[in-house]
Every structure is written in structure tokens, then in C-alpha cells.
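Handoff note, outgoing to incoming analyst
You'll be picking up this chain. Sequence as last confirmed:
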Amino acid sequence: MRRHQIPVIIAVFTLTLAGCASSGKSPAPTYGGGGAQGGDASYEAPAASGHAAYKSSAPAAPAARPSFAPESSGADDGMTLNRRESSPRPEHRPGLGTSWGENRSSHVRHTTFERTSSSPFAALSVYYNDAEGIAAQMAHRGNEGISPYYATTPNGNITVALESASGGVLPGRLAGERTYVVGRQGDRYNIVIRNRTGGRFEVVTSVDGLDVIDGGSASVSKRGYLLPPHGKLVIDGFRRSDSTVAAFRFGKVKDSYAARTTGDRNVGVIGLAFFGERGTEWTSDEIRRRETADPFPGDYAQPPPVDRVY
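Most recent structure output, in case you need it:
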């Protein structure tokens, strides 16, 4: 099993900010994706290229492929050629995407996190759209009806919800093993992750196929946020720096951050990959050591060496 260390971002902000994690302990820095003080401001759209939030210049959205039809020869030879389907342009697509919203204060610090494996132990996908779009998607899956909805990892120890700016859980439903959530154009939303265990985890997160930290194409090999033990992580925007994010806003597909940078192919889905920390995840080796532990390995207790730390 491959083990490696990667940098992990811990989001830090004071207890006075909206959406912070509540630990009930000291006023030390708490963890979460941060939220800015004050009301919603006007949008600040990303530049087409050279923006500070980008790793490199963002390519233009790919042009739609042309349709082809056979030229008419004036005679019916009984043969028909299929037209090539062209991808719809973003401005012609219905439903919602995630726009690059206003700046919000969200301070982070960097730390290290050693993964138990290069592969996540759990991954979740949350599909979002407007009410009409979700109704059509769920009908396609054979399900109807929505209510405030939390997605969970297979063991149920980690929950994920999309919450409104006021903290309400957005409605949704599990349909055909997919989680669907309803948004509303113009509304700001947060991705809220809760940990019911005593371990800490790294969470790599994407929105519309884009990594929420660097804005590039998402990959599980990239760094993520730290989810503290028995804590809450609030991710509320694409990270612009160690102190600010661009808020998540539901908007038209053509106005989405993805459509304006890498393309709209993956608009409408949020991804989360969870990694355990070495020494805390219940691997087969650790289970074997537990199962073979000797209850009577020696005779008398001996004091530990003074220079040894357990």
C-alpha cells in the first residue's frame, strides 16, 4: 500500500464569523470553509485569463461540433446517413451551474496529512439543479418527492449537505443511488460536512468538475481540506487566496465558472473524496494486530524507558 504525505489546508476563522464549526471548547481557531461577515455583495466574475485564482490561463469553452448531413443528389438511393449530434452551447442549456460569486473572508493555514492510501476510502456525488430540472432527473430515475437531505458515507459516520446562506439544509432525495438537491438561481450555498467520529480526515472536493482550492480540473490526487474529529467543515467558495474565497452561487449554466473557464461538460455535480489518516483508519493489518494481541505477554510490569514516547 502506497503511503505519502501531502499538504492539507485547514480553514481557520474566528468564532464571530457565520458558518463556523462549533466545538464547545476554547476560543482557539475553529475549522471550516469560512464565511464572510456582512451581507451578500455584487458578483465579481473571473477574468478570461491571467486571473490570480488560476494556475494558468483558462482555455475558452470548446466550440460545438458542427452537424453534418449528406448532400442531396436529387435521387433517392435508399441510403440515409445519421447526423452528428452537436454539443449544446452553455447558453442553450437549461438548469443551474455554480457561478463565481462575491469575495468572502476565509482564512486558512497549511499542515501535513499522511494518507493511508492513494485511493479514497469513500466518495460521494451530489447532483444539483433547479426544481424543474431535479423533477425531470428524479422522474428519469423513477422517484418523486423531496425533503431536507443529507448524503452519507457508507458507514454513516460522515454526512454532507448543501446549505443555504441562512443555514437551512436544501431539499433533495436519494434516487437510483444518486443524491439530488434542489437549488435556486441567484442563491448562495455552502457545502457542509460533519464528522461523527474521533478521527480526522482529508476531504478533496470538486464543484462542476473543478477543484474548489485551485480552480483547475478536479483530481483525487490534489490536496484537500481537513475535517476535524467530531467537527464540521464549511466550504463556501472557490479559494482565491489563503484569506478569501469566491462564493458559490447558483446561476445559469452559461454563467457558471466552469463554462467560462474549462467548459460546461460536468456542470451540476459536486464530488467529495475522503481519505483516512495513517494510524487511524481500520486497515486489515491493524485488525490482524488487534485480533492476535496477547493478553499475557510477560511476567511483571516494568517502567517505560525515560526517552521513549508512546
